[in-house]
Amino acid sequence: MKILITSGGTTEKIDSVRGITNHSTGHLGKKIAELFLAKGHQVTLVTTKAAVKPEPKENLKITEITNVESLLETMEPLVKEHDVLIHSMAVSDYTPVYMTSFNELENSEDFTEFLNKSNSESKISSASDYQVLFLKKTPKIISLIKQWNPNILLVGFKLLVNVSKEELFEVARTSLKRNQADLIVANDLSDISANQHIAYLVDEQSQEKVSTKSEIAQALFERICHD
Amino acid sequence: MKILITSGGTTEKIDSVRGITNHSTGHLGKKIAELFLAKGHQVTLVTTKAAVKPEPKENLKITEITNVESLLETMEPLVKEHDVLIHSMAVSDYTPVYMTSFNELENSEDFTEFLNKSNSESKISSASDYQVLFLKKTPKIISLIKQWNPNILLVGFKLLVNVSKEELFEVARTSLKRNQADLIVANDLSDISANQHIAYLVDEQSQEKVSTKSEIAQALFERICHD
């Protein structure tokens, strides 16, 4: 099968020297890729410069992206030619629009003006004591996958922080329905450490608990290749 | 001599999954460290996890920091026990205070309230179309160096983007005076590429032009060890 995997975290530029990054090392995506590669599948890994990556292999293609815009452009053709997407990348929810001083905010009569502005400076000045950064929502790539390819098997990821299991499952099932995903890997940052990565493979009826990155990879392989 | 070098870029957390990063690979700091190590000096490198680093050596100590707060804590004792500081790290100018929806901003009667708020959520919700992030200035570490150790030789760095040489030199000399620095390495992002790194070693009277990272390291070594 042709497996498309995303890993790492996107960075949205504030200016030419600063950006907002979603932290993700890429270790989980690497583990998943390595398992499918070892089983003889063709893997395309869409990842970032900073993320860890598998060793080069004949059946592995790696493509690097930076921000949501470049991810979107890269994904559309790839989604159309793969059988499975395992979308473990941490994608930025918001991207910077305009950064200004607190004074400019106080002197404004209509803040919506800031949503249509953009910074002309290459490096935003650091003169004022406080600054205000306006951000807008990025396109939700996961919601476009089944439009691009209704036959692809879609595995999404949901990372929350310090929530109850009930809330985690509920949010995962909302994402499952909204994005027509086949499976959501739901996890809580507080359950992830060097040697542990508790996660739940959530579908409409069930939630399967696994406890390490290797177990997540193994469980995904079994669901995808043996179901 | 005991040489303290900083490299890489700091990251200021927005929440537990997102942060604002000053991009810096650490290549220049690595080059400078390697030259001083090769000449038999004792080097302490304060850097970040993501930055490239020299190979381990007997006369090299490496300390990793994350944000401006941890840099500040780490630097004070180190500055007191070194002869030279080469401060090439890209340090965040601002750190997040509070992130909220555009609606909350529109409904506010006094925006200064946002400067005293903080997010209670571990991961800020991504429900609204626009968000607003309030940031405050970080302490300027370079301005504290000579207070901590009046005898240290201080080399600062100034990176601007797309400015004239006159502006670059003026900003460098302002930093020289304000921070009681002995030398400022002034450079423009538009003059930096894979094989080129144009920079000017600026003091009160002169500006010495160099064109690569190796030349920057060599010129710094000559100024520091032969003057």
TrEMBL record, chains A, B:
<dbReference type="InterPro" id="IPR011848">
    <property type="entry name" value="CoaB_strep"/>
</dbReference>
<dbReference type="Pfam" id="PF04127">
    <property type="entry name" value="DFP"/>
</dbReference>
<feature type="domain" description="DNA/pantothenate metabolism flavoprotein C-terminal">
    <location>
        <begin position="114"/>
        <end position="225"/>
    </location>
</feature>
<keyword id="KW-0436">Ligase</keyword>
<dbReference type="InterPro" id="IPR035929">
    <property type="entry name" value="CoaB-like_sf"/>
</dbReference>
<feature type="domain" description="DNA/pantothenate metabolism flavoprotein C-terminal">
    <location>
        <begin position="2"/>
        <end position="98"/>
    </location>
</feature>
<dbReference type="InterPro" id="IPR007085">
    <property type="entry name" value="DNA/pantothenate-metab_flavo_C"/>
</dbReference>
<protein>
    <submittedName>
        <fullName>Phosphopantothenate--cysteine ligase</fullName>
        <ecNumber>6.3.2.5</ecNumber>
    </submittedName>
</protein>
<dbReference type="GO" id="GO:0004632">
    <property type="term" value="F:phosphopantothenate--cysteine ligase activity"/>
</dbReference>
